[in-house]
Amino acid sequence: MARTLDSAGRDRRPGRLPPRVAAVLRPELESLAEDIMTEIRGTIPEYAERRHSGARAELRSIVDQALRTFVDQISGSDESRDRRDELCRALGRGEAYRGRSLDALQAAYRTGVQVAWRRVAEVGRRHGLSSTVMSQLADALFAYIDELASLSVEGFEEARSRTDDERTELRRRLLRLLLERPRASRSALERAAEAAAWSVPAEVTPVALPVRARCVRAALDDDVLADLGTAEPHLLVPGPLTAARRERLLAALPERRAATGLAVPPGEAADSLRWARRTLALVDAGIVEDAGLTSAEDHLLELWLLADGALLDQVARRRLAVLARMAGTQRLRLTETLGAWLETQGNAVETAKRLRVHPQTVRYRLRQINEAFGEQLTDPDSRFALEAVLRAGRMRERSPSLR
C-alpha cells in the first residue's frame, strides 16, 4: 500500500478507533521505533553516514514521539501533538541547515510508514482485528504520515528563508546560553535549540582553543557549536568525545592543539569549559604534556591542586612554616626528602632510591624532619595536607607563570 507524501492529509483526522487498537499497539512502540531506524540506516545513505549522526539522533527523536502521538491520537488524545509538531518542523529545518534537500527525509518517512504498516498488519492479525478496523487503521496511518511530512516541509521552508549568517548567529547565541551563569532555564534553552535546529543532548564536551587558533569550520561535524571570534575561542561537542570525534576535531585544527573538558550534562558546560581552559594553560606552562587534543580528564589532580594559587600559598605558608625558618640548602634538602618520604608511604629505603642518596642520609634528614614537624607526621590529615602542598609546589616550580 503506497501513498504520496504531501500536505493533503494535514488537516484530515481519522475516525475514532476502538480503544482496544491503542492498547494492542502501545507495547509495540519501542521495538517498532528500533526497526524503523534500522531500516532507515540500511536503505538511506544520508542517515548511514558517520558524520550525520546528529541527523540520525534527531530522526530517532521524532520516530519515538511520532509513534506515541499516533497511538494517542487514535485513542482520542491530542496531548502530545504540540511536541510532535515541534520535532517535525525542527527535522525539516535541520535538513535545510545541512544544505540538503528534503529527498532523504521524505524517503525516511516513506520507509518508516512501510515498516510501521507491516508491524500494524501483523499485530492486527495476531489480535484478530476486523477488516473494517484494519482499513480504518491504514487510512489513519497514511494520513498521519502525510501530516508529519507537511510539518517538516514547513520547517524546511522556514529555515531556507534564513541566511547562513543567521544560522551561525543562532547557534552562537545558543552556545553562549549553554555557558551562561546563572544557568538559563530549560525552556529558554529548548527554544534557542529549536531555533538553531540543534538537539540538546544528555551530555556535552567543551573544547578550549588557543588564542587566535585557526579552525576549519567546514571540517567540523555539523552539530558542533563554535564561537571562534572571542578572546578565548571554544567549541561544544554533543556527547562524549569518541575516537572518531577526536579525529575530526584534529583535522579541523591546523595547529592540532586544544584541550577538552569532561563530558557533562549541558547545565554543567561552563564548569567543564573552565577546566578545559585551565588544562590548556597547564600545557602552555609545561606542567602537563601537550597531547594535541589534551584531555582535562587525564589531569584532574593537577587541575585540583593548582586551582587556586593564592589559597595554595596560604596553605603552604602554614603547613611548611618550620621549613621557611631554615637556611636555603637545608630547607631544600628537607623539603625534597619530606616529599619523597610521604610519597613512598614512609619507606626510608625507597626514599633513598628516589633521591639517589644513602639510606643513612635519609634517616639523618628524617630525624631533623621529625624534630621540626612533630605530631604532624603521625596525623593522617596533616600528612595529606603536607603531601598535597609539596606536590603542587613541585608542579609550580616547573613554570614561573603559575607561581
TrEMBL record:
Domain PucR C-terminal helix-turn-helix: 334-392
Domain of life of the native organism: Bacteria
Protein name: PucR family transcriptional regulator
Domain PucR-like N-terminal: 16-179
InterPro entries with a match to the protein in the record: CdaR-like_regulators (IPR051448), PucR-like_N (IPR058663), PucR_C-HTH_dom (IPR025736), PucR_C-HTH_sf (IPR042070)
Pfam families (UniProt xref): HTH_30, PucR-like_N
